[in-house]
Design a protein that fits this description.
Elements: H1 2-17, H2 30-41, H3 48-63, H4 110-121, E1 138-143, H5 146-160, E2 169-173, H6 181-184, H7 190-202, E3 209-215, H8 225-246, E4 252-256, H9 273-289, E5 302-305, H10 338-354, H11 359-362, H12 364-367
Parallel strand pairs: 1-2, 1-3, 3-4, 4-5
Length: 369
Amino acid sequence: MVYSRNLMFLFAISLAWAAIAQDNTPGIDFDKARRLLQRERAGQTLNAEERAYLQRAKEIRRSQQPSRRRPANQRPAPERLIPLSDMTADDRYEGQDGGLYGAGFNTPGEQLMASAREATAAIKPLDKDGNPSVSGMIGFVSISMSNATQEFSVFKQLADKLPEKSPAVKIVDCAQGGQAMAQWVPVNGRPWQETDRRLAKAGLDPKQVQVAWIKLANVAPSGTLQEHGRKLESDTIRVLQNAKAKFPNLRIAYLGSRIWAGNATGGLNPEPYAYESAFVVRWLIQRQSSGDSDLGSEKAPLLLWGPYLWAEGERGRKIDDLIWQPSDFAGDGVHPSLSGRRKVADQLLHFFTTDPMAKSWFLAIDQQK
């Protein structure tokens, strides 16, 4: 009986922690967390620090599990969703026209391009006091949730091995599991505290951070595009303002929307909500371009599209050969598998090495011109 009870205990631990054992969320040692769970289940008393550490690990893992119950007012996706980059000025989706920048255009207009040239020209290696220095750094961070940290961490691995990348560019993945836009709104909230820790570990001062990649999402969105979209827009404005306050030399935030979620099994972020996050990116860029005071240069960095990551499943899109297959996703149909992470990382790497504005600070050869 004792032997049987021990087997049942170990089996329960295994079930409780099976998913966590495979997690690679930066900032949490899940082997350590698993050992703490075993001690807790065995009836041992954890100290306050150990309990807090285990609780954080549990919260991260729960946030990354699919929500099997959809909110009552989550809309079903239409039969077809056309990539925003494929829509024209005459096309309409929920009253919105096509093009990443609107009116059917996938590139910035003349005024925004001029602002982008000005902002990128100001990106130079800085010392820890924020002063230009030939031995300084260009801090490049990610801000968002679990998908983003999974994807950006692969991008960092690829980029750091790229001979052409400027040695001054210091990439730090600050995106975190379970921390969507709403969780980044409190200026002193947990995501920002973890960001401070990661920057310190990387030897980067906040004054050296000049570029950010921000992927827009909230947990379990529901309602119409206007309802959930405006909430995501409002939350993201607060996040941008927080980022500018924390990183006074932040010049550009490259914004991104979600990847395809046509196979989502729950309510975490299914279609059409993943698709519709792209319209929120565009709203923010358009608001800033129109002179909105909430997104002025003193409150927010310049907003530009990063790579657009959505394609209509295996139907793909016209601008390139990106497709999303079932094998590119974990079991929830929302988080990317290893192949899905690599696809996003490749999109990021291609963007930052070929975009005329981005490569001017990202590549060493362009910095030498």
